[in-house]
Amino acid sequence: MQLCKFLLPSPRFLQYFRNQPMSKIYAALTGVHCYVPDYVLTNAELEQLVDTTDEWITTRTGIKERHILKGEAKGLSVMGTEAVRGLLEKTNTHPSEVDLVICATVTPDMMFPDTANLVAHALGIHNAFCFDLTAACSGFIYALSTAAMYVESGRYKKVVVIGGDKMSSIIDYTDRATCIIFGDAAGAVLLEPSAEPYGVIDYLHKSDGIGQQYLYQKAGGSRYPATHQTVENREHFVYQNGKPVFKYAVTSMADVVQQVMARNGLRREDLHWLVPHQANLRIIESVAGLMEFPLDKVMINIQRYGNTTAATIPLCLWEWESQLRRGDNLILTAFGGGFTWGAVYLKWAYGAQS
Ligand code: UT7
């Protein structure tokens, strides 16, 4: 009895620790890597497939080429695996150390099991739990903030977020309204705990089901399972009514970016980079214009990859990685089917000090 009393902490001791402020754990982004398939689908080749021109595609979208994953039975996991393999190598992370893998995509290898699980298995990531997240073009930023919360909880130390899509698997190459836009790629980032305020600082995400009528893949889900009729009607492909999507995209992204900046006391001059989803060069320019943000501080690579859906933002971070410095303020923003949209305030965690 006396021994138990001796081992129990005294109430004063417990009170002391309750009064100590808990130090916040930040989710720092500590590496990025991407995989882009070799095959390049140019505007010239699209001119042979549908009634379009390089001039129309370039002036209306800014896209010159996109990459396509060719080959039988090759799904998103092929690209996701290569992106994560490179990420683990460059961050000196052993597969056994990874606690969680989240894969943002609308083009998983199969409806189930999740592609995150397939990638983990291919790489020997055996101590992690894995799941997919579907939010169309906003998938990566939704997954990034979800992953950040696991890290901030203190229970997960190494979390991999994949953003990838094999859009060519759901694109109708007889539909000029969509086939000129999309491409294939996958990117992956690593999140790790940091006691200093680097990484995901804030985010604001939104959704509105009004978007379901403008951008969708009608069949293949539980409402319209695959039948001869759905295949004949080409309902397993992406449908997009581009004009309303364009308008919503510009105003919605500008709105959340400005809200995130305001509530974090960020002025335009405090922002080092705007990292927008790459859907259309004119959308990117309009968002930057509404914010009066100089285009040379906006990451733009749509001309070479097209719209790779969940992969566009990691593709930008990967290409600009060598220019990024520790402490740089980045705002990532995306808009996509659903509608889904959002913005993430990310403080870059590595490289030379900003
Ligand atoms: O990432 C997910 C979210 N998606 C987006 O953010 C995409 C948002 N939307 C867009 O980027 C643009 O709306 C598109 C690039 C999809 C289309 O550009 P647009 O300037 O809105 O063109 P439109 O659909 O209004 O079409 C204008 C004209 C039409 O001809 P008429 O009716 O004026 O004679 C189309 O038939 O351009 C025609 N058109 C084409 N012409 C040549 C549509 N696609 C093509 C094409 N080549 N590929």
Report on the architecture of this protein.
The protein is an alpha/beta fold and 354 residues long. The chain has two domains: 26-197, 3-Layer(aba) Sandwich (Peroxisomal Thiolase, Chain A, domain 1); 201-347, Peroxisomal Thiolase, Chain A, domain 1, CATH 3.40.47.10. 34% of the residues lie in helices and 23% in strands. The protein is built from 13 helices and 13 strands. The protein has helices at residues 2-7, 11-19, 43-49, 54-61, 76-90, 115-123, 139-152, 176-179, 228-232, 242-263, 281-290, 302-305, 312-320, and strands spanning 26-35, 39-42, 65-68, 100-104, 129-133, 159-166, 184-194, 199-207, 215-217, 238-240, 273-276, 329-336, 340-347. The strands form four sheets. It has a five-stranded mixed β-sheet, sandwiched between helices. Strand 12 and strand 13 form a beta hairpin. The longest helix is centred in the last third of the chain and has 22 residues, at 242-263. The N and C termini lie far apart (59 Å). The model has no long low-confidence stretch (mean pLDDT 95). The structure holds oxa(dethia)-CoA. The site of oxa(dethia)-CoA (UT7) has 19 residues, from helix 4, helix 8, helix 10 and strand 12.
SSE blueprint:
Elements: H1 2-7, H2 11-19, E1 26-35, E2 39-42, H3 43-49, H4 54-61, E3 65-68, H5 76-90, E4 100-104, H6 115-123, E5 129-133, H7 139-152, E6 159-166, H8 176-179, E7 184-194, E8 199-207, E9 215-217, H9 228-232, E10 238-240, H10 242-263, E11 273-276, H11 281-290, H12 302-305, H13 312-320, E12 329-336, E13 340-347
Parallel strand pairs: 4-5, 4-6, 11-12
Antiparallel strand pairs: 1-7, 2-3, 6-7, 8-13, 9-10, 12-13
